[in-house]
Amino acid sequence: MTGPDRSRSVDEATLRYLARAFGRRPEVYKTSLFPTNKLESLVVTLDAEYYPTDVESVSLELRAYTNGDFHVSYHETRAGDRRWCRWDRHDQPHNAWDHYHPLPDVGTAAAIDRNYAIDLTRVVERTILPWIDERVGALWESATD
User: Which residues of 93-129 are buried (b: 16+ CB within 10 A; e: fewer)?
Assistant: First the structure.
């Protein structure tokens, strides 16, 4: 949503819905809604059993706001090396409202403009989950090379 009302409050209903949806997925180890160290977030820990053995941990952190803004970060620790990327919708000077910061470190210079679905649940379903599936496949391919 663009326009005059750019106030930002946590979209608790969307994050609660996503917590329930992620909680039903077999590759999810646990969900933490509004943990004390990330009060505006849903943190989803993925089951490392789905990844090659050198992948130590994988998680998503989702933030959603009632003005339509969101941030979804993918965090991966592999052989002691932490990598992350992020799907964003927010006003800022470096890119369009919808944009993506690729692996390995979400650098602003590498950010790419995107066009996401209006609803964050659709962004998760159509963009983020397919990206994670491709990432898992690429990690397994590189582990067998």
Answer: eebebbbbbeeeebeeeebeebebeeebeebbeebbe
